[in-house]
Amino acid sequence: MTSLPTPQRRALDAKAWFGLSYLFFAYLPLLFWADRPRSAVVATVATTLAFVPAHFVFYRDLPRLRLPLTLYVAALGCALVPFSTSGTTFIVYATAMACARQPPRRAIGLALAFVALSAAEVWWLVDSPVFAVTTVAMTAITATLVGAAILNGRSRRARDAELRLTQQEVRRLAGMAERERIGRDLHDLLGHTLSVVVLKSELAGKLVARDPQGAGVQIKEVEQIARQALTQVREAVSGIRAVGLQAELAAARLALLSAEVNLDQRLAPLPVDEAVERVLAFALREAVTNVLRHAAAHRVEVELAADPLGARLIIADDGRGGIERSGQGLTGMGERLQAIGGTLEVESPRGAGTRLVLRVPLRAAR
User: Fold this and answer.
1) Which helix (H) or strand (E) holds 301?
2) Which helix (H) or strand (E) holds 360?
3) Do 253 and 344 reside in the same domain of the chain?
């Protein structure tokens, strides 16, 4: 038996207690039974007492007991039917247990077997055909709805888990590809330069004694080459740190997808320079962060199009709206846009979503 973390254990315990609420239907027929026999009451109470411990054990992490407990609860239901048709309540419990813990095909097969067995039993023992058909139909409908809901929940959780794994794999591969690219760039940038520096340094060392002037020339060339390499390294590091709009859009899609928010994008191929693209990427990141934290939106639209000023980026959501121009990162966004000669428009009526319009030149203002 593996111990679960405390929050998960508490959640399962709460679910187990909540599941007992359905026991109400085991006693409901007794309330409307005019000449209710004592045996029906005693059998229902005894079945309940036998069921409750099994119900709580089922929610423990005991895989080997799952199928036996499911069959045990189904048997309790069938044993109660001769005394009271409320035994079908435990058939629904058994169906839920099968659908919650068994493979889908086996769960469906067990559910069909439980319902069919209880239906045959009710039909055989109940004198009134109308009451028998009604009881069987209600049992079948309830078991179907409960089982379908549980199986659908399992499928959704499996898809969510697969999606999270996919996102992690995408991030891992993206990070690996970026490290490889950085390694190649640095090798191409510094490999030849450092080789030349080594050769000229060795030459200067040989010339120091017999040709000091020639050695000085070599040293000056080494200094020039080193300065050029330093400039190139700074430019390369700046490019590595810069985040492109497409990369930021991919990260936004993953983040929104995790929150079940749809993203629609329309990006025109505009020749914006690196400084402008960095500002737009930052604005997109800030806007998506606001959507995830505050907007409670279901859809986000991102559009990059031509504009008289140069380019126009629109980020709109269908969330609650009502954001302040001076808050939620918009002040910093506006300052960055102003630094490159751009502008920011904010439309955020309460209850009608938020629309950010960023207008920027194709080349940053100097």
Assistant:
1) strand 299-307
2) strand 354-360
3) yes
What is the DSSP code (8-state) at residue 244? -
Domain-embedded: residue 177: no
Task: Assess whether pLDDT exceeds 90 at residue 258.
Answer: no
Residues 314 and 338 in one domain: yes
Helices (H), 81-128: 88-101, 104-125
Asked whether residue 114 falls in the same domain as residue 196, the answer is no
State the pLDDT confidence band at 241, using cuts at 50, 70 and 90: very low
Residue 297: domain span: 245-360
- Residue 88 CB burial class (10 angstroms; 0-12, 13-18, ≥19): buried
Structure tokens at 128: 């009134």
Query: Based on the domain organization, do 39 and 103 belong to the same domain?
Result: yes
Q: Are residues 206 and 276 in the same domain?
A: no
Residue-averaged pLDDT of the chain: 81
**CA angle, 303 then 308 then 313, to 5°:** 20
Residues 151-185 as b/e (b if ≥16 CB within 10 A, e otherwise) read beeeeeeeeeeeeeeeeeeeeeeeeeeeeeeeeeb
In the sheet that holds 343-347, the strands lie side by side as 262-267, 299-307, 310-317, 354-360, 343-347
Establish if 227 belongs to a structural domain: yes
Sign of CA dihedral 161, 166, 172, 175: negative
Q: Give yes or no: residues 75 and 18 share one domain.
A: yes
- Number of structural domains in the chain: 3
- pLDDT one-digit tens code per residue, 40-53: 889 999 999 999 99
Looking at residue 344, which CATH number applies to its domain? 3.30.565.10
Least confident of 4-18, 26-40, 64-78, 274-288: 4-18
- The structure tokens listed for 23 are 């026991």
Identity at 88, one-letter amino acid code:
T
**Structure confidence by residue, pLDDT tens digits, 200-231:** 788 778 877 788 887 788 788 878 887 777 77
